[in-house]
Structures are given as structure tokens and as C-alpha cells.
């Protein structure tokens, strides 16, 4: 297994980043690729997980080992594949996911794309009591109340990129459209638009 990769961020898309390591470009799928926009052209360290199936070989990357651990735990839950696990981690608050599992908070878990009541229940059955060690290391809750201000106008380039990234994560256009007015109230970089959108979508 590839534990981590050190290299320069060469390219960013809504699904993945490309990291150049001594002239070799590694395509790495990440929960929020635009978090690395600030690192474009810079050397980063990204913790990786190699996913192998009969017809797929993919490399997934995370900013911390704790995020990667939660990703691998989620993959062991029936009904959750890599795309679903990435969508759950894209919210940027794995601690809240762990807490929801421990509290058997199905209402919170079903807010993630592709997670219905059956899958949420399976997450609780499979993972409750097995993730507490992660809570000490995970980031604090990033969700804060947002003021709703309707502001019509053309989408900025960063907002367009954020919308595409949300679609990649599995959110429906109908869901995304509901939060666009709140997103338009500020001029933000792409990664912050994504973070804010996820905060709103998971309320």
C-alpha cells in the first residue's frame, strides 16, 4: 500500500488532483480537490489509499491519516462505495459523522448523497463503538449558522467550479439550486464555496 505521496500539485479538477512526483503524475481522488487550489505548483504531502477491484484501480488521497481511516471504515459498510465515502468526508467534519454514528443519529446521516435509512442504519450497526479513537484527533465542528441573503447574478468562476464539484459528489441539481442564493452572498474561493454548500446541505 502507498502510505503517502510527496509531490507538486500539477492539476485540479472537480473529482481529483494530479500530483507530480519526479515527472510522474499521480491521479488522486480527494473529498474536496479545490482545497488544494492554494497549493497549485507547491509540494504537498497527501495520505493515500489504493482501491482495487476487478475493473478499477484508483488512488484516494486525504489531508490526514484520520480522514483516511474513516474512509476505509466507511468502505466496509454494505451499501457504501468510494464515491459515497468521499461525499461523506467532503463536508470537512469527520468528527460530526463519528458522533452521529455513536448517537445513532440517522437523520443526520441520511443527508449525505446516496445514504438512505437502510445504509444509515447499517453504518450505525457496523461502526458504532469502533470509531471513538478517531474523535480525539479529528478537526472541530466547522458548521456555523449562515444568514440567508438572496443575491441574484451570474455565477463566478469559483462558484461554477464548486457546483461541478458538488455534482461529482452526488448531490442533485435540485438540492444544489436551493443553496446557490446563500452561496452568492459572498465572494469566496472554490474550496470555501464547497465547504459552505456542504454546511447548508447537511442542515
From TrEMBL:
State the species of origin: Schinkia azotoformans LMG 9581
Q: What does this protein do?
A: The RuvA-RuvB-RuvC complex processes Holliday junction (HJ) DNA during genetic recombination and DNA repair, while the RuvA-RuvB complex plays an important role in the rescue of blocked DNA replication forks via replication fork reversal (RFR). RuvA specifically binds to HJ cruciform DNA, conferring on it an open structure. The RuvB hexamer acts as an ATP-dependent pump, pulling dsDNA into and through the RuvAB complex. HJ branch migration allows RuvC to scan DNA until it finds its consensus sequence, where it cleaves and resolves the cruciform DNA.
One GO BP annotation here? DNA repair
At the top level of its lineage, which domain of life is listed? Bacteria
**Which segments carry the region annotation Domain III?**
157-203
GO molecular function terms noted in the UniProt entry: ATP binding; four-way junction DNA binding; four-way junction helicase activity
Give the Helix-hairpin-helix DNA-binding motif class domain ranges.
72-91, 107-126
The similarity annotation says:
Belongs to the RuvA family.
Q: Which Gene3D superfamilies match?
A: 5' to 3' exonuclease, C-terminal subdomain (1.10.150.20), DNA helicase RuvA subunit, C-terminal domain (1.10.8.10), Nucleic acid-binding proteins (2.40.50.140)
Write down the HAMAP family for this protein, in alphabetical order.
DNA_HJ_migration_RuvA
Q: What is its main location?
A: cytoplasm
**Quick one: which gene encodes this?**
ruvA
> What is a single Pfam family found in this protein's UniProt entry?
RuvA_N
**Compartment annotation:** Cytoplasm
Q: Does the keyword Plastid apply?
A: no
How does the annotation summarize its subunit structure? Homotetramer. Forms an RuvA(8)-RuvB(12)-Holliday junction (HJ) complex. HJ DNA is sandwiched between 2 RuvA tetramers; dsDNA enters through RuvA and exits via RuvB. An RuvB hexamer assembles on each DNA strand where it exits the tetramer. Each RuvB hexamer is contacted by two RuvA subunits (via domain III) on 2 adjacent RuvB subunits; this complex drives branch migration. In the full resolvosome a probable DNA-RuvA(4)-RuvB(12)-RuvC(2) complex forms which resolves the HJ.
One annotated Gene Ontology cellular component of this protein: cytoplasm
The record's keywords, sorted A to Z, are:
ATP-binding, Cytoplasm, DNA damage, DNA recombination, DNA repair, DNA-binding, Helicase, Hydrolase, Nucleotide-binding
Name of the protein in its database record: Holliday junction branch migration complex subunit RuvA
Show the domain comment: Has three domains with a flexible linker between the domains II and III and assumes an 'L' shape. Domain III is highly mobile and contacts RuvB.
Amino acid at each position: 500500500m502507498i502510505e503517502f505521496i510527496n509531490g507538486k500539485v500539477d492539476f485540479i479538477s472537480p473529482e481529483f488532483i494530479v500530483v507530480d512526483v519526479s515527472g510522474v503524475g499521480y491521479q488522486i481522488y480527494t473529498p474536496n480537490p479545490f482545497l488544494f487550489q492554494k497549493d497549485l505548483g507547491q509540494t504537498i504531502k497527501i495520505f493515500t489509499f489504493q482501491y482495487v477491484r476487478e475493473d478499477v484501480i484508483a488512488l484516494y488521497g486525504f489531508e490526514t491519516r484520520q480522514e483516511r481511516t474513516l474512509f476505509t471504515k466507511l468502505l466496509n459498510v454494505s451499501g457504501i462505495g468510494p464515491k459515497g465515502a468521499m461525499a461523506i468526508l467532503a463536508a470537512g467534519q469527520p468528527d460530526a459523522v463519528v458522533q452521529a454514528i455513536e448517537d445513532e443519529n440517522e437523520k443526520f446521516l441520511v443527508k449525505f448523497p446516496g445514504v438512505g435509512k437502510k445504509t444509515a442504519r447499517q453504518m450505525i450497526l457496523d461502526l458504532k463503538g469502533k470509531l471513538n479513537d478517531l474523535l480525539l484527533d479529528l478537526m472541530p465542528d466547522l458548521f456555523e449558522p449562515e444568514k440567508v441573503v438572496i443575491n441574484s447574478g451570474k455565477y463566478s468562476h469559483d462558484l461554477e467550479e464548486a457546483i461541478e464539484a458538488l455534482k461529482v459528489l452526488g448531490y442533485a441539481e435540485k438540492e444544489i439550486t436551493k443553496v446557490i442564493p446563500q452561496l452568492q452572498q459572498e465572494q469566496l474561493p472554490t474550496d470555501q464555496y464547497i465547504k459552505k454548500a456542504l454546511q447548508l446541505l447537511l442542515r
